[in-house]
Structures are given as structure tokens and as C-alpha cells.
Structure prediction request, 517 residues.
Amino acid sequence: MDPLLIDNLTEVTRLDGVYIYELDPDKYVRGVGTGIAGCVGEFEWGPTDEIVPIGSSKKFSDTFGGYGTAPAGEELTWRGFSGYRAINGKRWPFGLRIVRPTATGMAKAAITFKIPSAAGYRTVTLTAKYNGARGNAIAGAFAAAGNTALTDGFKFTATLGVLVESYDNLYAAITVEALGERLQDSKIFTMTIGTEEVGAPDSIPASVAFAAGSDGTAALPAKWTAGIDMLAANREINVIFCAEPDGTYVTNAALNAHMKSTIAPATGATPFVIGVLAGDSAQSAAAAAADAADYRSDRLIYTWPYRYQSFSDAASIHPDGELLVPSNDAVACALVNTDPLFDPASARASKYLNACTVGLEYDDLTRDDYVTCNAAGVMGIEFDPDLGYKVINGVTTSLVPGKETVHRRRLADYFNKSLARALKFYQNEPITQEWKDDVRGAVQDFIEREKEAKPLQRILAAEVDTESVNDDTTEAQGIYNILMKIRHPASARAIVLLSQIGTSVEVRDGNDFEALA
Prediction:
């Protein structure tokens, strides 16, 4: 008898043979990733007002375009689209999540003409896939269909930069469904063919040019802040930053304030996110220190200063390809490249920061500038002749004792998120002794694996307490608590976590829990 796949072990007793029975995977705690960043910024191409996952440099350039073209007369001051400047030239090994906000007056390039049909003509409308002046660069070419027997057949080829798409054997009477299926993967344009009408068709030119695409005239603050909200609610994302806004319609001050109101409370849908902030380009160290006073939270990192970065592919829009970039994008890049075990101010983290910021130019700032920033909790970037670029300090602006460093915050988030995702598999189950043993075993297994994870040993020692934080009352309410005290290699301080399993799972951290304190 052939092997038999079964879903009930009683089948084994009915007849001798070979049986395959799939077991559910163990509900052990897996360490979560900490390397995905989210960015809100201006781009010349791409979807608007939605999160777009990016996993490669090719997808990034295909989806969001490039620096753009300098407006006439602004060649010496044009800095390109801020989102492209922020992302390009850096290493994002675990991917990005990008939001391109809509601007007032944004429009898609398009062209309309009449093609021959049986009774006269049908109107064809070709529309750029996305809003923006870049759509005006789309070139279209018509040719005879490969299938010569096809009535009113044609071939259409669209070109945008290095993207080239060809669609053969299209025809006037094609159904909406069939046309949509043929063009669903296009990265350049959409096409609609109208109903048949009586009249003379246009002479179909060999080539056509799209027109009337626009980047818009004014950025919309509400779209930028909505982008922040979307990224903060996405549980894949660990670090959020905004590319440089226009400064007139959307300001750094407004974006920073929204980051504070959305991320700093660390409640609701945004429990494990860090926001990386920046001020304006002309900001002094003293101004950065003063501004940072409004953003005192262990979930907000205020960065300074702006630097020039040399982009090899930007020479066409600015002399020598040098563009001014804020420091928050470099710090965000360094954070997602650095395991939470390591302090961003360490020499190891400097290696990642330099890999993220190829072409960043050295600017000789004074020691007093950095002292000012350090005292105010501003994360400054300095140039060290031995290490290259490095974070001058690892502090955030929190005033809560024990929660000052971004290093501690990231480690706590790693433990919080890992436990929260794993323990949800135990919710809404009867609190039996076997269930308690399973929960405690999953947590202990996670601790042991983290202690043995060389060279990324994130735990030196840990204690788990389920006795002092549970009683008959909590269990009668369907709630079970797990208290952990974790000592990590980076310092003598400990991270204390309280996990609660009930109808949902809550994990919170602090240094003020009575047990294990």
C-alpha cells in the first residue's frame, strides 16, 4: 500500500502501513528583523499616497524615477527630488517602504487620438502610469500588428528612460477585460479604447509624445503626515524618516511635530517604531539643540547637520553632482544596517554608516558644536580621520532615567516585538498547567538561543518570573503575565519586560516594575 497522508492519528490503528501526519510547528519565539526603514518624500514618479515596498535599486529607480530635471534658470540651485536624494547612494539591505505624497495640481501625462474601426473610429487614450512631469518624456511608437490577419490590428511600444515595453496584436474591438489583462504589468502607461463611433479616424502617426504631466505646484502637508501615519502603523517598519520638505508648504517643524504626536506615545498601532528627525539646512548646532528640546522621547532621534554628498549620477543636474542632504537619512540608514546589539556610536556602527553614505563630504565642525549637541541629546555626525564618518553620540532626547540611549531603545524593541509576535499564538486558550509550561518554555528557549547567538549575543543573563505577577484573580479574568529581566552585553543595565496574554497580547518595558527590580 502506498504511503497515506492522514489528518487523524486513529487511522494508524485501522491497518498496518506507512502514514504521514503533519505536526503543527512549535510556537517558539523567533527574533524579529530590525532592518526595514520607511521614508516619506518627493519623487518624480511612482504611486502616490500608498506604501510601496522596495527590495532592490532597480525597482527603486524603475518605480520612483530619478533626480528630475532642473527648471530653466535654476540649474545651480536645483537639488532634485528630496526622496530620491535621501534614498540614493545608500545601502538598504532589508528593503524600504516608501510613500510619495500627492501635491496640488499633480497630473498624469496623456495623449488621445482616433484609430480606425469597422464603422468609423474608436478613441484611444494613453495615460502615464503615475502623476508627474516625468510622464511627458514617454515616447510611443505604432507599427503594424504581427498578426496580419487581425482587423484593425496594431503594435504599440512605449519608452521611458531605460524602460521599454511592447504590446503586439492589439486591435480596435478588443474588450476592456482583455486589454486590461494585456497591460496590467506595464510600468509606464495605461490604455483605454472607447466605443465605436461614426466618423473619420485620425491618421495614426508612427510616433506620439505624451503631454500635460505635472509635478504640481504646492505640496500638501496632510498628505505628508498621512504618509507618516501609514508607515508608523506598518509593523514591518522599524525606523521612519522624512526626506527634506520644500520648506514653504511643508516644513521640517510640522513633520517633526507630527512624528512626536504619532510615534513618541508608543501606544496603539505604533509601539515599536523610532522616528529620525532633522531641522532645516542652515541650522546651527545651537539651533539644533534648542529645537530638540521639543522632542524629548526615547523614540525620537534628532540629527544634525546637513552635509554635501557627491552623487556620480547627479552631474547633469548640479555642478560636480554635489547635493545637500540632511543627516536623518544617513542615520536611518546606519540604524537599519546595524544590529540592535551595537551602539550606533560604536566603531562597528561607523563601518555601516560609511557604507551607507558613499560620497558624503567632510565638513570641519568644532568640538564645541558637538558638545552642545551631546548635552541636548542631538545625534551628531562627525568625521573621524581613523574611522571616517561616525555618530558622535548614541543618545536620544529622553529624560527618563534608564531610557536615554537609542541603543537601549532598539534592544528593548527587539525583545518586545519578538515576544509579542510569538505569544499571540497562546491567546484565547484555557490557562492550564500544560499551557503555562508551554509559554514559559517558549520564553526560556528564546533566552537560551539569544545567549548562544555568537557573535550577536544579545543576552548575557535573564530571569523569568510567572509567580509574583499572577494569581487566581488574573487567571479568572483570562490573563497571564510573564515578567522578564534581561541583562544585555552592552552595559550593566537591565531591560525589564512585562508580557500579558489575554484576549490580546501586550508587551511593555520599564525600569520601575516591582518584581525582579
